[in-house]
Amino acid sequence: MDIPHSAIYAEGPTALSPEVNEFMAKRGIHVLGYFMPAIDPSRQAALMPEKSTSELPVLHCGSDSDTKDLGYIDFTHPNAAELCRRALKKALDLGEAGSMVDYGDMVPDSAVFHGGQHGPAMHNFYYYEYQETINQIFQETRGDDFILYARGAAPGTQHWVGQFAGDHPANFEGLKHVVTGALNLCACGYSNWGSDIGGYWGYPQPAVFMRWMQFGCFSPLMRPHGTAPREPWYFSADAVENYKFLAWVRENILNYTYNSAVIAHETGVPIMRSMPIAFPDEAHLASVGDQYMFGPALLVAPVLNEETSRTIAFPSGVWTSLWDDKLVSGPAAIKVNAPLNTIPVYLKSGAVVPVQLSRTLQFGASMIGGSVDALVTTIPSHSENVRLLNARGRQAQVAIHLQGKGFHWTLEALPEMRYLLLYGTSIATSVRVGGKALPKSEVADLNSLSFGWGSDSANNRLVVSLPQKSTDQSVRTIDVEVDVR
Length: 485
Known about the structure:
It is a single chain. This protein is of the alpha/beta class. Helices cover 25% and strands 26% of the residues. The protein contains 11 helices and 25 strands. It is elongated and about 80 Å long. It starts with 6 loop residues before the first strand and ends with a strand.
């Protein structure tokens, strides 16, 4: 169906099926499994036959029956890591690339840990050593190429795992809850977050599924999940088309999302930024809880009900719709159209968004036939320097300058960039690269040109095809100047 996927979640024996793992590996799809910290004492003994009962990392919960019924691992015990290593060995040998790291929230007050701690002191902090242990076991086998995500958290666990929202109802109320939860949790420093798209319990209505999928596309982790099927063909033909479009949009913005994750890693500023985090000087935004910035440049306003429009509180500046040619000047509260297949997304002034697009240069189009790297920008309101990582993971930069009647971008160490796409205007008097004027062409011809520029009035943007070098120059600098009327 030409819908891209990167991983499949398999809970239970499916994750340990050699056939499933082989099938997925041939198609470049990772298998993710499930882990919880309850291993019955009898299974612990089977996994560690050389250990005596007293040497097993069993969490003692006040009585033998409570200990056996809960079956929690005591992660303060020196044998806990080896127990988990053996419990996960088959999955890791098959190539499991990550896991849900579930539970850990049932430590009773009566528990006494090997390290001397008691239940009340450890109830929340159990997560830390639990999630650290599982992270380190995956790291031993897979280096940094894996993902773990958990429902529970303690201070510091964001170093070991991402988060998921938990088991929400499959309706608009559930969607509202996860948006609120996301913005609150991300504000606390837990940036790598996702929800069960469509909700967890039962079948969502088609509109709920589509709106949740849109929100999921602009969440740090995008993962459909629930007690009933979440494949789009269970809902409607429109749901299939919307799912496909959003799956490709997600691929389009992967480099931007990754760069936003790097910012979170280096500074603590999360990928999803509530309005008061993103705009602390604009008091009128402090109480707005149903929209957010996704990374530094994209304003996202999910629709959380059955309506086909919603009011957006725009911050100061000029905002450009990612999907069409509409411009909005803020600060302003404006009602915008949002058909069922559309989530409102706007680019800020001076946006710098590294993307990969199909050769049609359209968001949401299939990239099966190939892709090109592009830098999506908007008309800046001031000069600034924006740091990025390039496609090789090396430091790069885009320097933005206002000059005369136009604008000047300097792309440093971004050799992969094939296009610069300036959104918000389709009119220019000239475009120069490296001080040399580029020929103006029809937009339809730019794919076949080595360089040039054109006016894409249908999308209210300028398309600049950057000259390509015959040899790889990983540190090359490209100067792009655009004069506008």
